[in-house]
Amino acid sequence: MWTPILRLILTIALAATAVAAAPLPWGVASNAALGLAIAAGIIFLESRIRSVSATELVAIALGGIAGLSLALVLGALVAKIPMSGPIQILVQTSLLFFCVYSGLMLGWMKGEWFDPRNAVAYFQAAPVQRNLKILDTSVIIDGRIADICETGFMDGTIIIPQFVLKELQQVADSADSLKRNRGRRGLDILQKVRKMSGLHVEVSELDYPDVKEVDLKLIELAREIDGKIVTNDFNLNKVAQVRGVQVLNINELANALKPVVLPGEFMRVFILKEGKEYNQGVAYLDDGTMVVVDNARKLLGQNVDVTVTSVLQTTAGKMIFGKAIESSGGSAASR
After folding, report:
1. 181 burial class (0-12, 13-18, 19+ CB within 10 angstroms)?
2. Taking a C-beta distance cutoff of 8 angstroms, is the pair 309, 321 a contact?
3. CA–CA distance, 67 with 106 (Å, rounded to integer)
4. Neighbours of 165 (CB within 10 A)
5. Within the chain, what is the greatest distance between any pair of CA atoms?
6. What is the CATH number of the domain that holds 215?
7. Quick one: pLDDT at residue 297?
8. How far is CA 304 from CA 266, 291, 307, in A?
9. How many domains does the chain contain in total?
10. Which residues, other chains included, contact 323 with Cβ-Cβ below 8 Å and sequence gap of 6+?
11. pLDDT for the residue 115
12. Which domain holds residue 201?
């Protein structure tokens, strides 16, 4: 909200200063244009800095200071070499720009070299790995995260951002009954996770007022604290990977844990409803996998032995196709 106002004040102040100082001899318009150009450059630099994490800013600053220090040392050595004044000034100026530029680029590209935490790590007996995992709103409302935490597979520290809690509260207070129930269920799941013994849960107060979308805030938080985002949101998963943030997708975990079924194997399923094609029945495994069974339309509401004929992996999940064993149909009907 305040950013556009502050930028406008900065632009007006620089334009007025340039007009008052009159560094250019071509009149008021040229000096005002100079002030506006300087303001535009400052605003552009400020907008670029917003996308840089605090660690990277510190690394760039330290890299620039290191380059400047090296340039001063080399400049003092060059001053002792006999040469003409203009050549000496040119060499010293070139060294200054080269060293400072190289330091800034090293800080940008190799920021971990300048990270104070790495320097502290050398004096510690063993590095402490916090292994931070950040929960997003969708994974809290989903509810399966509580079961995963209860089994002990979620190690390290669970981070719950304050802006996620705010969004969850807004969903719980929604006028829509479906959204309200989902939000309240998410809050119940959150309380369940926080009460689990052996699980370290923290609420992060870090926020990014200039970033409106919660997904982008999660990415910025993960980059700043070097954490992983736990989600089941497909779009957040892709955007985070593009931004270089690690993601733990519980949908991918669920798919990985589904039992492997090969053609020719036998299974026993409960025919729940009719299929789309003639004489088909549909059953579901415990994990929700759909099983389409031929010759099973007459066996609705019965447990049937099935021979697996093929397995189809789709973006929505896995589908199993099979054929009812005729001998089991009679026995199932008799029961």
Report:
1. middle
2. yes
3. 10
4. 17
5. 110
6. 3.40.50.1010
7. 84
8. 10, 12, 10
9. 3
10. 293, 294, 295, 306, 307, 309
11. 59
12. 132-252
Single residue among 252, 279, 303 that ends a domain in this structure: 252
In-domain check, residue 322: yes
Q: How far apart are CA 293 and CA 280, in angstroms?
A: 6
Residue ranges of the chain with per-residue pLDDT less than 70: 1-2, 48-55, 108, 110-130, 259, 314-317, 327-335
Which of 188, 198, 180 is closest to 146 using CA atoms? Answer: 188
Distance CA 283, CA 20 (A): 82
Query: pLDDT digits over 227-238, tens only?
Result: 999 988 888 888
Average pLDDT score over the chain: 81
Burial tier of 84 (Cβ tally within 10 Å: 0-12, 13-18, 19+): exposed
Count of beta carbons in the 10 Å neighbourhood of residue 308: 18
What residues contact residue 1 under an 8 Å CB cut-off, 6+ apart?
Answer: none
Residue-level pLDDT at 283: 92
59 Cβ contact list (under 8 Å, min separation 6): 107, 108, 110, 111, 112, 113, 114, 115
Are the C-beta atoms of 267 and 322 separated by less than 8 Å? yes
